[in-house]
Amino acid sequence: MSAYSPFASGFGRRPTHAIGSCVNPYKRQKTIYTLNGDDFLRQQITAVSRDLKDGIYADFRIVVENREIPVHRIILKSASDKFETMFEIDMKEKREGKVYITERSFDAVKAMVDYIYGNEVSNAKEVCSELLEMAEEYNIPKLKNDCENYIKGRINHCNVYEVLSHAYKYNANELMDAALKYICDYRKELITKEKCSQLDSDLKDQLLEYIANHL
């Protein structure tokens, strides 16, 4: 009788991997872990975001109504190409580390900064129209779109002509369409010679054309 060989049949056949390999075919392979910094990065972003919102390590100042708002160039640069140009070209603001904004209210500028930093704009009702203007001036499309949507939901008989003029002046097309539609829907009550006479001639023509096309 021949000697028993564990490789003679079935379960005990010789493994086919190359001689010298360290793999043991009879043991379950262990999970191979890799070093990945994703979780650590998320933790760091959370910590940095908290510091940024608190004004820590600010390297720039916005001065409005003799009050300073501490900010970070990298945040403003990523939000607005106007700020990006200011920081990349050798302008006075870049050298002095501050910019003076003279034609805006402190509350509106602070609201814009809060928005850029991801904070809630708590005084939106009071500053939204001014925010819309700054969103156009500083080319912040998301802020502009949000302002348009905010104002659209608050159009009424008392403010619709003001909203229409504001939207026309600052190229807020969605808001302008909403105001035109509102006036058209309530044209019997809202269209008067007095109110139309207060509109820019081009805007008045657009209003009349819109109504004619939607009768």
Automatic annotation (TrEMBL):
Superkingdom of the source species = Eukaryota
Every copy of the BTB domain together lies at: 58-125
* Stored SMART domains: BTB
Fetch the PROSITE patterns from UniProt. BTB (PS50097)
Q: Which Pfam families match?
A: BTB (PF00651)
- What CDD domains does the entry give? BACK, BTB_POZ_ZBTB_KLHL-like
The record, for InterPro entries, names: BTB/POZ_dom, SKP1/BTB/POZ_sf
The molecule here is called Kelch repeat and BTB domain-containing protein 3-like isoform X2
* UniProt organism field: Dinothrombium tinctorium
